[in-house]
């Protein structure tokens, strides 16, 4: 919809022209019509043209790039493209779950683009836009403000932390199925391997920090371990972070993970964490069917400031097994 004439306001330049025209009109009224012809008529023509140009202008179009999902603390660049019938200054609105160093705004004339950087802060779908556009006529006498374009989103994953593995070792062994039955080969230590996989005797013959991992033939493939997450109101962030951390630990150990949370369900095999992180980014608080929760291999419950990780034989405080924050290597 075009800007409405009643929404158009004079700029400071426009008010200056109005004052000059008013002064000339008063001078013409007392000293003759020469001031009227020389100043007042051109000013009225300019003012009418400026107001008419804005009232007839079409709404600006705004498009922005969709940033890649990421973890809290990461930065993403957003590019905004604007097309306008009249000179335009566009300002993006950014959700409180994102941070910017300065207001993302730029004068783009009748069309152009600008970019700004956001820092991801809070888990979830964080809004980008809509843009607020200040439109002026070609002479800069009038301006109108309008929203333009639809809102986009930046998806922020939950925090993922390293987990102390000794308490979850029984879950890993259960997920791996049969224990290794025969030696297969040695290979270099790589992404997804843990220190317990290192073949120390063979690695001792290598250069420092060059480790070898022993691989074994197994009678069966690893079975998925079921992890459920539940949370009281206000605990969704803590629950999502704990579930993501436990799932990442199991995936690093080569165990597929079957996750159920109030926002949905997902099966994630080792090396494929993106779908799981997307689910955990948007899930809300809530509780699952009690029978399903009780049958899970790992049950995560967040209430208030306390998050509990329940195994078949014990309950653990997540704060007691959590380590340093992890980042993009989880989905690498």
Percent range for β-strand residues: 35-45%
Overall mean pLDDT: 85
Briefly note the structural class of the backbone.
Answer: alpha+beta
> Low-confidence segments, ≥5 residues, pLDDT <50?
178-182
Q: How many beta-strand elements?
A: 18
The SSE order reads EHHEEEEEEEEHEHEEHEEHHEEEHE
Keywords:
4 domains, 332 residues, single chain, eight-stranded antiparallel sheet, Immunoglobulin-like, alpha+beta
List the helices and strands and how they pair.
Blueprint: E1 9-10, H1 12-31, H2 34-56, E2 61-64, E3 75-94, E4 98-99, E5 105-120, E6 124-136, E7 142-148, E8 152-156, E9 160-163, H3 169-176, E10 182-188, H4 200-203, E11 212-217, E12 225-231, H5 236-252, E13 257-261, E14 264-268, H6 274-282, H7 290-295, E15 298-303, E16 306-310, E17 315-317, H8 318-321, E18 322-326
Parallel strand pairs: 12-13, 12-15
Antiparallel strand pairs: 1-7, 2-3, 3-5, 3-6, 4-5, 6-7, 6-8, 9-18, 10-11, 13-14, 15-16, 16-17
Helix pairs in contact: 1-2, 5-6
């Amino acid at each position: 919809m075009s800007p409405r004439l009643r929404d158009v306001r004079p700029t400071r330049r426009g008010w200056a022209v109005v004052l000059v025209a008013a002064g000339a009109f008063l001078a013409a009224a007392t000293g003759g019509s020469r001031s009227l012809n020389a100043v007042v008529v051109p000013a009225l023509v300019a003012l009418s043209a400026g107001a008419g140009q804005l009232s007839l202008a079409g709404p600006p179009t705004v498009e922005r790039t969709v940033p890649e999902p990421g973890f809290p603390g990461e930065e993403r660049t957003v590019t905004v493209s604007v097309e306008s019938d009249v000179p335009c200054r566009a300002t993006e609105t950014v959700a409180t779950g994102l941070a910017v160093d300065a207001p993302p705004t730029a004068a783009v004339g009748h069309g152009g683009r600008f970019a700004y950087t956001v820092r991801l802060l809070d888990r979830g779908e964080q809004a980008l836009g809509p843009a607020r556009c200040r439109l002026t006529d070609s002479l800069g006498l009038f301006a109108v403000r309008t929203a333009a374009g639809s809102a986009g989103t930046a998806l922020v994953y939950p925090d993922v932390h390293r987990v102390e593995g000794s308490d979850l070792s029984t879950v890993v062994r259960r997920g791996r199925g049969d224990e290794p039955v025969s030696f297969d080969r040695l290979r270099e230590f790589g992404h997804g391997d843990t220190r317990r996989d290192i073949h120390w005797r063979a690695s001792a013959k290598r250069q420092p920090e060059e480790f070898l991992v022993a691989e074994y033939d197994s009678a069966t493939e690893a079975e998925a371990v079921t992890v459920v997450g539940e949370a009281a109101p206000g605990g969704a962030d803590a629950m999502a972070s704990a579930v993501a951390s436990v799932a990442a630990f199991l995936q690093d150990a080569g165990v597929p993970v079957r996750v159920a949370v109030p926002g949905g369900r997902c099966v994630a095999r080792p090396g494929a964490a993106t779908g799981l992180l997307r689910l955990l980014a948007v899930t809300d608080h809530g509780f699952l069917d009690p029978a399903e929760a009780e049958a899970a291999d790992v049950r995560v419950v967040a209430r208030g400031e306390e998050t509990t990780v329940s195994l078949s034989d014990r309950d653990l405080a997540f704060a007691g097994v959590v380590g340093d924050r992890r980042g993009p290597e989880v989905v690498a």
